[in-house]
């Protein structure tokens, strides 16, 4: 099942190996037979069982455009998308052992007399972004290349000054880089630009008021200041930063007292260049008490201006009018008899 010219590691028939060694074999030199050994063992001797597990796990983490047909990626019918590759790598980086293995430049497989050259066999990581090469970037913590025919892919994660990113480049033409690592060259160029241009920073300060709203039924304050609940940590341009965001408030025209500090009274949505960053709640920054006299007078005004009150007044007027007509008519009838 594995072409003789594909990437391999020194695994021999009858040899006992640990899962850790096989993981290093898969990740560093892209050892295809190591992937098949793991698939065979975990699939109960049936490779397709393990491939089904791969597809189920991809679906479980939200992949919608990924289909695996073999455990190592040699089959051209394996398909994925940039978004799915990001989701897969994000899920993998949650495992410390994977992060350690993928970020290791070299790994000592130990001594085995059956090696072509007896002695210690050292695996070399094909991710030249983390090795001592012209592609090297200090901020790259690990990743995985994939090459078939005339193109190359790479998915990696990068961290610098407390900021971390996952990058995915797909279908980079091999002829675009004479060194044979075009996806790594493109990733390095892309991430150099990202770190120089953007920063991950708070777009809001929860300790500072962001807007205010009028207060009704109170003589204590005319307005109450509103504070964001979340700092909305997000990707922002280094030049301009949070000042470039636009704020859209969703709050009432006025708030009725009493108001308690911390009451959620609205939301704010942040956008930058038309792209929504997110939405967070707005809370009242202070207590505001109610003036009972103002509240009572307001309710009285509301009652007399209500439709209910108008209907009652009209009905009362009709009753009084009917009574007056009846009374006047009766008086006139009595007066006419006396005449």
Question: Would you give an account of this structure?
Answer:
With 339 residues, this protein is α+β, with helices and mostly antiparallel strands. The chain is built from 8 helices and 13 strands. The strands form 4 sheets. Strands 10-12-13-8-7-11 form a 6-stranded mixed β-sheet, with no helix packed on it. The radius of gyration is 37 Å and the shape is elongated. The model has no long low-confidence stretch (mean pLDDT 87).
Helix content: 25-40%
Our Rg estimate from Cα atoms comes to 37 Å
Spans of 5+ residues with little confidence (pLDDT < 50)? Answer: none
User: End-to-end span in angstroms?
Assistant: 129 Å
Question: What would the keywords be for this entry?
Answer:
alpha+beta, 3-stranded antiparallel beta sheet, 13 strands, 6-stranded mixed beta sheet
In a few lines, what is going on in this structure?
With 339 residues, the protein is α+β, with helices and mostly antiparallel strands. The protein has eight helices and 13 strands. Strands 10-12-13-8-7-11 form a six-stranded mixed β-sheet, with no helix packed on it. The chain has a three-stranded antiparallel β-sheet with strand order 3-4-5, sandwiched between helices.
């Amino acid at each position: 099942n594995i072409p003789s010219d594909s990437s391999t590691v020194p695994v021999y028939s009858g040899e006992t190996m640990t899962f850790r060694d096989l993981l290093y074999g898969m990740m560093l030199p892209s050892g295809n037979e190591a992937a098949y050994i793991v698939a065979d063992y975990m699939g109960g001797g049936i490779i397709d069982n393990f491939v089904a597990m791969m597809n189920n796990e991809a679906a479980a983490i939200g992949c919608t455009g990924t289909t695996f047909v073999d455990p190592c990626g040699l089959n051209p019918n394996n398909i994925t998308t940039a978004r799915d590759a990001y989701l897969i790598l994000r899920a993998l980086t949650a495992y410390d052992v994977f992060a350690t293995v993928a970020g290791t430049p070299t790994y000592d497989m130990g001594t085995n007399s059956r090696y072509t050259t007896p002695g210690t066999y050292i695996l070399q990581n094909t991710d030249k972004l983390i090795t001592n090469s012209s592609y090297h970037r200090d901020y790259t913590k690990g990743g995985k290349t994939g090459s078939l025919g005339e193109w190359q892919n790479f998915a990696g994660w990068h961290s610098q000054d407390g900021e971390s990113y996952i990058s995915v480049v797909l279908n980079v033409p091999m002829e675009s880089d004479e060194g044979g690592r075009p996806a790594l060259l493109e990733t390095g160029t892309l991430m150099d630009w990202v770190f120089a241009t953007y920063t991950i920073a708070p777009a809001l300060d929860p300790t500072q008021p962001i807007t205010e709203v009028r207060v009704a039924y109170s003589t204590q304050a005319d307005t109450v200041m509103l504070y964001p609940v979340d700092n909305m940590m997000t990707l922002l341009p280094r030049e301009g930063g949070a000042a470039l965001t636009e704020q859209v408030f969703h709050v009432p025209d006025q708030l009725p007292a009493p108001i308690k500090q911390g009451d959620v009274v609205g939301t704010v949505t942040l956008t930058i260049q038309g792209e929504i960053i997110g939405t967070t709640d707005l809370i009242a920054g202070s207590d505001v008490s109610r003036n009972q006299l103002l509240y009572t007078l307001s309710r009285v005004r509301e009652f007399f201006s209500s439709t209910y009150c108008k209907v009652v007044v009209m009905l009362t007027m009709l009753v009084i009018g009917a009574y007056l007509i009846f009374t006047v008519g009766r008086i006139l009838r009595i007066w006419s008899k006396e005449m």
